[in-house]
Amino acid sequence: MRYYPNSKTLSIKKLKLDRMKIILSLIDELHQQKYDLKVFDPREFLDLFISKVGLIEELNHWTPKIDLILQNYYDGTPPVLSHNDLVPENFLIKEHQIFLIDFEYVSYNHYLYDYASFTNELYPMVKKREFIKLLNLSHQELIKLNQLMQYQTYLWAHWAKYMYQASRERKYLKLMKEKIEQLG
């Protein structure tokens, strides 16, 4: 394992357009890679957490919409190699270079999933809009991106509930509440 002294993770607060472009190219580069890995099953992954902690009551009204998203998840598009967890902490910055780290959830997935994952982490809204504009997506792709963002928020709320129940660490309870609020 390699150690990178004087490195740090990505700061969303300091994120500028030039770094967004670098991140976009990193994601695109990852999507071009070919490995012998499984295809992500969004229902199976969600059910993994729901089976352990049950549905989050505040999100019951989202369940039918999530079910529809899952029914048409791939829409006939071929999956690409995806990181599947593009939170700021999974971007390492060393000497003005950015690297992806933590490939725990890597698999083949919808080509928009990683973009949705990263977009979900952006705030304020102006940064989300800037990044989405860089993607240059069609109207249908924007709809799909939004659906994947909704699925991920629903998924990570249940993951956070599971992690809280397993560890009793309050940071997971806080994250679950943030995800519930994000969905509305």
Report on the structure:
It is a single chain. With 184 residues, this protein is mainly alpha-helical. It has a single domain, classed as Aminoglycoside 3'-phosphotransferase, Chain: A, domain 2 (Alpha-Beta Complex), CATH 3.90.1200. It is built from seven helices and five strands. A three-stranded antiparallel β-sheet has the order 1-3-4. It has a two-stranded antiparallel ribbon with strand order 2-5. Helix 4 packs across helix 6 (139-167). The longest helix has 29 residues, at 139-167. The N and C termini lie far apart (41 Å).
CATH superfamily assignment? Aminoglycoside phosphotransferase (APH), C-terminal lobe
Radius of gyration: 16 Å
Runs in which pLDDT lies below 50 for 5 or more consecutive residues are none
Number of helices: 7
The gross shape turns out to be: globular
Strand content: 5-15%
Topology:
Elements: E1 8-9, H1 17-32, H2 42-53, H3 63-71, E2 80-82, E3 91-94, E4 97-100, E5 107-109, H4 113-120, H5 125-135, H6 139-167, H7 170-183
Antiparallel strand pairs: 1-3, 2-5, 3-4
